[in-house]
Design a protein that fits this description.
This is DUF1330 domain-containing protein. This protein is an alpha+beta fold and about 100 residues long. It has helices at about 15-30, 65-70, 75-85, and strands at about 5-10, 35-40, 55-60, 85-95. Helix content is about 40%, strand content about 30%. α1 (about 15-30) packs antiparallel against α3 (about 75-85).
């Protein structure tokens, strides 16, 4: 069953984010079957309050694959780097179908 990672990010250091974080994180994401479905800053909130920033929706083959990406030993140094470059709100969930 497919699973998704939904992240709202507010990038503080765009240069390092593009150069140091994204290429390395993307390689690990692909290793776990992750595929970006949407990346946008254009959100039309109709109800409630949503976090500010860029929205990233990534699909994985399963919730286990999403968790394996997030917990991958190769990703741990990138999580530390990411914390220095941006603020994020993130959730992992399965499709429910």
């Amino acid at each position: 069953m497919p699973a998704y990672m939904l992240t709202f990010v507010r990038v503080h250091d765009h240069e390092s984010h593009q150069k140091d974080y994204l290429p390395n994180a993307h390689a690990i994401l692909q290793k776990h079957g992750g595929k970006a479905l949407a990346v946008t800053e254009e959100i039309d909130v109709r109800e409630g309050v949503m976090p500010q920033g860029r929205v990233i929706l990534v699909e994985f083959p399963s919730k286990q694959a999403a968790e394996a990406f997030y917990n991958d030993p190769d990703y741990q140094p990138l999580k530390k780097l990411r914390s220095a470059l941006l603020d994020a709100d993130m959730a992992i969930f399965d499709s429910g179908f």
